[in-house]
# Entry
Amino acid sequence: MIEARELGVGYPGRVVGAGLSLALAGGEVLALLGPNGCGKTTLLKTLLGLQPALGGSVHLQGRALRDWPLRERARAMAYVPQGQASTFGFTALEMVLMGRTAHLGLIARPGARDHAIAQAALQRLGIDQLAQRSVHRLSGGERQLVLIARALAQQPRAVLLDEPTASLDFGNQGRVMRAVRTLAGEGLAVLFTTHDPNQALRCADRALLMRDGAVLAQGPVASVIRRQDLRELYRAEVHEVSDAGGGLPVFLPGP
# Structure
């Protein structure tokens, strides 16, 4: 679905990352981990075409991203940014309807079909009861689920999420990560960034570790999310605890 080949990312006069390669298929979840400032968000924006690549290439469904018209690209890929506060008191349904923009004409208004698709997106995430509630009256977790529903309303083939559980409490983190697995279960390609290796280990199929603008390791989560790899990634002590219930380890930062 998405493939980056020897990708260079950054800004004019400032290279953030180079030689970055990855591939993401439909129905697959890829977790991107790395310390602050390593280039995760810049990589996401380059994969989406929001920033031009400084080198290499991005391919979407086997076709160079630069050859995709903007409207077609917006229909194929959705972006869920970090928790977003809205200045205006839109309802949850109105926020989700914004995901239909790529399917509408320049001055067209959402029609009955667009409303049905937006309602269905809310239902798929189990938050249809929030449809008429102002986003100002939603919890952080509910707002994040609304943003994911907005991405679903685009009817994309890939969804890229930037730290979708940042600043969320423990229970809402679980709700959002279950939604991520729901997307993959419906055949979408999903990439999310996270600082939590335990989320990656339990919710992703593969992981990519990134440090100083380069790929440190990537592969199936069980072979990449390991104590020694995490110690090298964060240059910090990491403790590994056995999870007797799930059979997977739990990683904790050292003192």
About this structure: The longest helix spans residues 170-185.
